[in-house]
Amino acid sequence: TKGDLAGAVALQRETLERMRAQNPEAPQTLQTAVGLAEMLQASGEAEQATQLLREAYEAQRRLLGLEHSSTSMTARKLAEVLRSQNDAAAAVALLREALEARRRSLGPEHPHALNVAMNLAGALQDVGEVEEALRLQRETLEVQERVLGPENPNTLATAAVLAEMIQAHGDLPEAIALLRRSVEGQRRVLGAEHPVTLNMVTGLARMLRSQGDHAQAVGMLESCLEAETRTLGPEHPSTLSTALDLAATRHMQGEVKVAKRLLWTTLEVQRRTLGLEHPHTLTTQRLHRCVVASER
Questions:
Q1: Distance separating the N- and C-terminal Cα atoms of the chain
Q2: How far apart (Å, rounded) are the C-alpha atoms in residues 92 and 46?
Q3: ∠270-276-280 over CA atoms, to 5°?
Q4: pLDDT of residue 233
Q5: Whole-angstrom Cα distance, residue 144 to residue 151?
Q6: Is the dihedral of CA 182, 188, 193, 195 positive or negative?
Q7: Which parts of 190-213 fold into alpha helices (H)?
Q8: What's the CA gap between 55 and 21, in Å, rounded?
Q9: What is residue 194's DSSP assignment?
């Protein structure tokens, strides 16, 4: 909860202050700073998180070197925060350097190098370098299929991300075909009701909705919502996200009353669990008002 996170942040700050007093640039001190930055990012304090990660990264780079695993991990986390702050260009520069270092130290087909490559592909897409992003993601998938196997969960997750990139590039039929294969693989490997599988199915439903296949999208989303409500609980963020997707699709079908009911139920949960002023609550509130207005 929000209160639990605030308490954890306060405790982590105290721990970091004590460690800095003893040795501000000890590896464990820097790792504690990175942990605090992750907590701050989760609590919406992106600027503080960025500053902490920059300081930790510069120290690790100077003391441990670019090719050290801790330096690489911090670079990836810093790039993630930079992307969330719409500074994808800085993230691209950071990840290019990190990828070169990982490839030098571990080899281009090592899982850690591939993880950095996927992070870089996402950042490249953010800055509009779609062709390079697609090439890098396709290369990563090819390596994983060969090294890990086509039905390894990591391989299937990479394929799902590639499908989203292909959709953004404008080839919806290829994206749907690739994501269908990934969903089928995850069902065999992880099971039909695994959270990763269900998340992938909701992504496929959104693609089908974009293609105009509302009926098939609704069927998938209703099945996902039922499974998530049962396995994760009715107030889990994934459950609420699926309910919103289902509401939007039902609205597109002209099922305004159904959409309105789904949105209101979701809004009540978000107000209770997230608070009245949380961005997700406010977004759902705006959607509900739009649906109500369309009914008049």
A1: 38
A2: 18
A3: 50
A4: 96
A5: 10
A6: negative
A7: 195-210
A8: 16
A9: S
Question: Which is it for the CA torsion 191, 115, 181, 236, positive or negative?
Answer: positive
Q: Which are the contacts of 245, defined by CB distance < 8 A and separation ≥ 6?
A: 202, 205, 206, 221
With a cut of 70, list the residues of the chain below it in pLDDT.
1-3
CA–CA gap between residue 111 and residue 113 (Å, rounded): 5
Q: Give per-residue pLDDT as tens, 205-237.
A: 999 999 999 999 999 999 999 999 999 999 999
Q: Which of 199, 128, 202, 197 is nearest to 165 (CA)?
A: 128
Quick one: tokens of 129? 């370098």
Structure tokens at 296: 């008049």
What is the reported pTM? 0.85
Q: Which two tokens stand for residue 195?
A: 């959270």
Sign of CA dihedral 37, 41, 45, 49: positive
Buried b / exposed e along 218-250 (16+ C-beta atoms within 10 A) = bebbebbbebbeeebeeebebbbbbbbbbbbbb
For tokens 């281009």, what's the residue? 108
- In the chain, which residue ranges form alpha helices assigned H by DSSP? 2-22, 27-42, 46-63, 69-84, 88-106, 111-126, 130-147, 153-169, 172-189, 195-210, 214-231, 237-252, 256-273, 279-295
Give the residue ranges of DSSP H helices in 107-129.
Answer: 111-126
The confidence score (pLDDT) of residue 294 equals 85
The number of residues in the chain equals 296
Question: pLDDT averaged over the chain?
Answer: 94
